[in-house]
Amino acid sequence: MNEQELIDTAKKLVAADKGLLAMDESNPTCNKRFAKLGIPQTVEARRAYRELIVTTPGLGEFISGAILYDETIRQQKKDGTPFVKIFGDAGIIPGIKVDTGAKDMASHPGEKITEGLDGLRDRLKEYFQLGARFAKWRAVISAGEGSPSRACIEANAHALARYAALCQEAGLVPIVEPEVLMDGDHTLERCFDVSEEVLGTVFTQLYTQRVMLEGIILKPNMVLPGLTCPKQEGVDEVADATVKCLLRSVPAAVPGIAFLSGGQSAELASARLNAMNVRFKSRLPWPLAFSFARAIQQPALEIWKGDEANVHAAQQALYHRARCNRAARRGGYSIAMEKT
């Protein structure tokens, strides 16, 4: 493990008011999204869509790193140029999703445990050789009635920490992603309490596994009411609750926090990130960035619909969303940007 290289990479991922593009959907998830829009669920359709993203002109102005899937990191443009090389030439650091998904947790109905530690050391070596310089592992936590259990929190936190230690051993910056899901009718206060407990447990496990905090990026949820909660707090209330939770839970040694979008609309995700930076940026020990998937990709996917004639328009939409999120990092996003 080269500690300085890990620290330098982590800093680059959150530098210059940029953020991460998550394009690490598994093939089944990608196929489901294609099916909804009438796009063929084929290897070539997935490759073409990813080429659309990878070759978007100017994307490196706003995006510092891209999280890829196993199929994606091995793919190429039609002319044979590897996607990893295109990203590197654009100044975008390639990363890789390495967990194998959230599975039902034994003896805990309705709760999930993320798997993928078996054989991970060897997979990380291969991904490093393929050009990846950071990795991602997502744990999912429900804030429903009677959940999460302490066992679920501890098991997922332990897995995240073991994954992170293996990543650093292999020279990859681990993105540590404990996600408290938006699904359900829980209140903002309930999300706050669960998020605080989850983050506290995750960092306890990271210490236990001797993970160097200066060489990670945290990818948490924002503190939000459940999607079906009758009371939906405003942008400023969400910003206040999220930052308060992070200040209680996240050590100053962490070089950056890059939020997941978690099913938020593109505009709301940008507005909430913007509010945090407007209200707190100058007082925080770490930068608040973004690591969005659908909140950047979805408008472009809906325009493209598998038609090559729509590639340029789709790329413009992708560029626009990335631009909006960089503005949000600077506290300069406004709804007026959506009309340009």
What does this structure look like?
The chain has a single domain (3-339), classed as Aldolase class I (TIM Barrel, Alpha-Beta Barrel). It has 12 helices and 10 strands. It has helices at residues 3-13, 27-36, 43-54, 70-73, 83-89, 120-130, 150-170, 188-208, 235-249, 266-280, 294-304, 311-329; strands spanning 19-22, 63-68, 93-97, 102-104, 112-114, 134-141, 173-180, 217-218, 257-259, 288-292. Strand 9, helix 10 and strand 10 (288-292) form a beta-alpha-beta unit. The radius of gyration is 19 Å and the shape is globular. The mean pLDDT is 97.
Task: Indicate the mean pLDDT.
Answer: 97
Determine and state the CATH class: Alpha Beta
Q: How many helical stretches?
A: 12
Q: Main beta sheet: strand number and arrangement? A: 8 strands, parallel
H and E string? HEHHEHHEEEHEHEHEHEHEHH
The CATH homologous superfamily corresponds to Aldolase class I
Structural class: alpha/beta
Q: For the CA atoms, what is the radius of gyration?
A: 19 Å
Number of DSSP strands? 10
Number of domains as seen in the coordinates: 1
Ends: how far apart? Answer: 46 Å
**Low-confidence runs:** none
Strand order of the largest sheet: 8-7-6-3-2-1-10-9
| CATH fold-level label | TIM Barrel
Shape verdict: globular
Oligomeric state of shown chains:
single chain
Q: What's the helical proportion of residues?
A: 40-55%
Proper CATH architecture? Alpha-Beta Barrel
Strand content: 5-15%
